[in-house]
Amino acid sequence: MTTITDQAPRERALPRVALAAVAILLALAVIPSFTALYQVQLLTYGLIAAIAALGFNLLLGYTGLLSFGHSAYFGVGAYTVALVVAHLGLRSMEEYLLIGIPVVAITSAIFGYICVRHTRIFFGILTLAISQVLYSLALKLYWVTGGSDGLRVPRPTLFLGLLNFSGSHGFQLFVRSYYYYVLGIFVVCVVLMWVIVHSPFGKALQAIRDNEVRARFIGLRIRRFRWIAFLVSGTFTGVAGILWVPLNGLTTPEVLYWTFSGEIVFTALLGGFRNFTGPIVGGIAFTYLKTYAVATTEYWQLLLGVVLVTLVLVLPTGIVGAISRAGQWFGRRNAVT
Prior knowledge:
two-stranded antiparallel ribbon, disordered N terminus
């Protein structure tokens, strides 16, 4: 039972958290005014990766379930947009979201119902198998999905057609406008996830993660809670896929492959999956790390592997966890002196 003394430190910390969030949001809002177009585009990819990692971490960090198949929901979101463009001829980003989110949610609900019947390595292998089935379908059904060539997605309009990006400077205008569009959705996703993980539902997930036997003993329906967490997690990752494909301009079966799921896991580990902001930092950091690794060497996968091994050995709590521990150490040192 939470006491008044337990709640007091949290209540004192809330203004600091809110102030830091506002400062970061203002910094993100003014960055495009001082950076090159390519850096704006790269940061947009980072925000999208952060949304995907934020959804993934609801399973890993708060429920204790490691999924190796979250590329499936990212890919379903991306392919839904591509198929809507190809067969319905829609060009509005709002229409993509309106159609894509229910499709991703239904897909997550169906696959989650199957996967949450198992835990530990069996859960991970099952999620991996399902994502590989979708990858094989996307690769083989070339008359629908375009096969290995994928499907092209042109630049959409924003705000129900109010912003159109045709013309000679359409790409530059699209990148900068789309950055703010993604930033707005990113803020909404962060707020929603914050509310979820700090709600009674989120606390129940943490109880299940920490001790499933005791959670069941106090009356929590374990499988139902895990299924809802899976549904929310997959939907968030699917939203990232919906946002990613218009910026990328093309979707291929590679976004459904198991290596892409590995990248989502990497982002959570890089930032730190035991805290709320870790996946956000990890998503942005991984985007820059991978981009510059690919540009630096043809052995970029080896470089990322070395970074991952080093991270696990040296910074097991991730970037945010290491910064937090360093801050606590300096705080105790200053208190002593």
